[in-house]
Amino acid sequence: MENEEYSKELNVAVRVVHMACSLCEKVQKQLISTNSDQVKSKDDHSLVTVADWSVQATVSWMLSKALGSQISIVAEEDTQTLSSPESSSVLAKVVSAVNGCLAEAPRFGLQGPDNALSASQVLDAISRCNSLGGPTGQHWVLDPVDGTLGFVRGDQYAVALAMIDGGEVIIGVLGCPNYPVKDDGLKQYGQQKVSLSNKSSGEVGCVMYTRKGSRKAWMQPLIHYDQRLEWPNSAKPVQVSSISNPALATFCEPVEKTNSDHSFAAGVACNVGLRKKPLRVYSMVKYAAIARGEAEIYMRFARSGYKEKIWDHAAGVLLVLEAGGVVTDAGGRPLDFSKGIYLEGLDRGIIACSGLQLHEKLIGAVYASWESSNL
Ligand SMILES: Nc1ncnc2c1ncn2[C@@H]1O[C@H](COP(=O)(O)OS(=O)(=O)O)[C@@H](OP(=O)(O)O)[C@H]1O
Ligand SMILES: [Mg+2]
Ligand SMILES: [Mg+2]
Ligand SMILES: [Mg+2]
After folding, report:
1. Which keywords accompany this UniProt record (predicted)?
2. Helical pair 119-127 and 88-102, crossing angle rounded to 10 deg
3. Residue 151 CA to ligand 1 centre (angstroms)
């Protein structure tokens, strides 16, 4: 993808997401082995960890350094909890994780700071990601840790970075540190959690990326220990599955019932003739599974009143589209990333599919199930 438009932005984004994955892997390992104070609750009772803040600071600092401090970044986290006096020990951990990661920038082909960042510089890097996006100009969109619950449980999570220009998603990069590289790795992961030896051998963890209009999506294994990122030498193209028979199709959905109506999805699945049990996976790894051809369908029906955020979808949606799939709301309309931080006007839910045939059937089944559930 060299010499193409946005190649500089894509190049930086892929490298930065590799750095972020390496940071997350270290924090997740510590979190699981020490059970320490690295997890906090936000005002809405959702979780935030040292990794969420550290990745946001690192990505913000690196993007500004490589692309200019004027760039606009829309991201999930803020510094409200982190800058309170009770959070001083967490802030110290964040500063240490950020500096540890930035010091490794040369391994990823990037340049870090000359001196370690202070706590206030780290807080500044996090809080400058306060753009609201919108229909004009370029905006980076970051979910530093998507699937924080999966992350805390030692399971699947993703680092999601996208770039929107003129309201359209142009670049999508998804780091999936616990997604095995080999085919059907996610289904096997579900049965047998990743062991640490697999993790360091390069068999587990990848970064997926794409650029709008390229009609290609790529997967690059993560690097470990003191390896250098040789990118794009070992990147492999990925594409959606060719299965269109519902009886053979696999469908993904969120793990938590609070994030998606499992029983409504089960009704739709039955109506379409899906036979397999749902593959419940934390995070945007669900989009990655469609883009890699490991699953055919992702359905998500949030409770009414919940507004989906752009950072939970932008990178994953572009990956599925460029890998050959289809993504719309439950009414069949494309998702609109031009309206600010929310997917405004979303009709009921999100349906991502490997192909048009399955997609049409699902939209029809949603319509029928909706009618009957509202009788
Ligand atoms: N009520 C409700 N409905 C729908 N979605 C919600 C809701 N509350 C939160 N969120 C967002 O869901 C993100 C996690 O989605 P997942 O697909 O990973 O869900 S699950 O953990 O597998 O159940 C999660 O992303 P992260 O916070 O980055 O983990 C939230 O942005
Ligand atoms: Mg969150
Ligand atoms: Mg998220
Ligand atoms: Mg998040």
Report:
1. Hydrolase, Magnesium, Metal-binding
2. 80
3. 12
CA–CA gap between residue 287 and residue 325 (Å, rounded):
10
Nearest CA to ligand 1 atom 12: 259
Beta strands, E only, the chain: 39-41, 47-49, 73-75, 138-146, 158-165, 168-180, 204-211, 217-221, 236-238, 251-253, 279-280, 297-300, 326-329, 350-353
Q: Which atom of ligand 1 is nearest to the CA of 258?
A: 1
Alpha carbon distance 146, 169 (integer Å): 18
What the block records as the tokens of 194 is: 């990743």
Distance between Cα 173 and ligand 4 center (Å): 15
Is ligand 1 within 6 A of the CB of residue 147?
yes
Taking only the tens place, the pLDDT of each residue in 237-287 is 999 999 999 999 999 999 999 999 999 999 999 999 999 999 999 999 999
Q: Does 148 participate in catalysis according to the annotation? A: yes
**Mutual orientation of helices 7-34 and 88-102 as an angle, nearest 10°?**
130
Evaluate the CA torsion angle 106, 141, 155, 181 in order and state its sign.
negative
Choose the weakest-confidence range: 80-94, 182-196, 202-216, 355-369: 182-196
**ipTM, 2 decimals?**
0.99
Q: Report how far residue 345's alpha carbon sits from residue 311's, in angstroms, rounded to the nearest whole number.
A: 16
Nearest CA to ligand 1 atom 2: 259
Residue 277 CB contacts under 8 Å (≥ 6 apart), including other chains: none
Whether 58 sits among the annotated catalytic residues: the reply is: no
| Separation of alpha carbons 55 and 29, rounded Å | 15
- Encoded amino acid at 58, one letter: T
Pocket residue to mutate for ligand 1, from 259, 264, 303, most atoms within 8 A of Cβ? 259
Of 312, 342, 348, best ligand 1 pocket probe by most atoms within 8 Å of the beta carbon: 312
The Cα 107–Cα 91 span in angstroms is 25
